[in-house]
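A further point concerns the way the authors explain their paired sequence and structure data. The central task, working out the structure tokens from the amino acid sequence alone, is never made concrete. I therefore recommend that a typical entry be quoted early in the introduction. An entry of this sort, consisting of the sequence and the corresponding backbone structure tokens, reads as follows:
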Amino acid sequence: MGWLNEIDALGAIRQRMICAANITGWDIFTFHTLHNRDHYFDTTIAAVRDTWLKEGNLSPAAVLETKKQFSKPYDYFRIPARLVENLVFQSALLEWVGQRAADVPLRFHIIGTALLSALVSSRSIPFSAAVTSALEFGSRWDQTMAGIAESNRTAETGWSRFEELRRLIEGRAVTALAVPRSDLPQAAAPSKPFWYSPTVKDDPVLIATARDASAALETLNLSSWAYATPAPLGHDESVRGWLVSPLQPFARLCRWSVSNYLLANPASVNLFMDYIATLGRAPVLLLPPETPQNRFRLSRMKVTGP
């Protein structure tokens, strides 16, 4: 949520939100803030919403549709919507970081479904194609998780599905769901190569050509959302920066650590690039599958992102 105060990042986020709304019919900003319980950001949310409505960048019809589709707190864990939300924020933030890291020896390491965002930010696939793809395979995953939740139901189906996804994200369950090739977009060579791992435990591979990008897309799997302890730093690495929210499970790796740094807002990213990334060997900037957010922890009353 802190990124809404960074003008350049907010401009890119706004353009992606408008494009996504034209495809989905609902609004990412409203979805992202609808069930927010961190009142520290209420003023910022209201100011951004009112400004965009007056400028015509936020459709009242899309806002109403969002509130209709995602009215319940557990709806924040609907997989297609989360994938599109992640795509909007992650692709914009990757571009923002990349522009400011032109003279910093960063190595970008992408994990799991964040691959779509990296391919968009590197001009390998169009944003609209990525949104369409995320909606297609995300809907398949959502239907499967709804079936699993129904078979294990101990409460309302929506809450059961929420609990199944929370168990996955926290690393307490394993759910492997692949993506049909028909749901994947056509990829060109990325403008800037980057490293990619299907899950946080997998060794990274370099994505530099169209063939690399296409092969990587075929490895997308819901299991990448699960928390796991990452592999140790490589011999040619010194530190890692995690582009995540403090409330995401991966943020715990940055506690009491001199080699893992939490990059949860513009100020922390700038500090990392100015004072950490310029020291020693090339640092790694990791982008897990979930978007950076600043919300309360998961509960039945307060639904938040991982």
Notes: The mean pLDDT is 87. The longest helix spans residues 127-151. DSSP finds ten helices and six strands in the chain. The first strand starts at residue 107 and ends at 111.
